Amino acid sequence: MRKELDKRLAAAGLDPEWGDVVRDLDRVEEVTVDQDAKRFVLRTDAVGCAAGVFKAVGVALPPLVRQLPATTPPPKPAAPHRNAAGGRGVVPRAGEFPESQRRFNRLAKTGV
Asked: Over the stretch 54-74, which tens digit does the pLDDT of each residue have?
């Protein structure tokens, strides 16, 4: 795939360093913003050689700002996962999972 990209960049008269291509493309991002019951998608500016790379491969950059159609509100984030011990990221103490402990003891006795 990189050879094809290099070929298209050369055909467009571009000769950027590979590190610059990766860095500049990585900087192109989109974010969705909710404001006053309206939703917008904002895109960062295509800096460095990013715009030339997009053009060389025949991909149009989306507009810097676009409004999304009014639809249902975005889903709310899920509640943080709680483990059986009741805390986030808390490792349960021995005995809090008796069935697991019994299985562990059986395996330990068999030497597994």
From this structure: 999 999 999 999 998 876 666
| Cβ atoms of residues 50 and 75 within 8 Å | no
Helix (H, G, I), strand (E, B) or coil at 58: coil
Please indicate, yes or no, if residue 41 is contained in any of the structural domains.
yes
Residue numbers of the domain that contains 37: 2-68
Residue 53 lies in a domain: yes
* Residue 47 located in a structural domain: yes
Nearest Cα residue to 1 out of 61, 47, 48, 53: 53
> Which pLDDT score is estimated for 91?
56
Please return the burial class of 32, using the count of CB atoms within 10 Å of its CB with bins 0-12, 13-18 and 19+: exposed
Model-level pTM? Answer: 0.57
In the chain, the number of structural domains is 1
- 21 inside domain: yes
Res. 88: pLDDT tops 70: no
CB atoms within 10 A of CB 56: 20
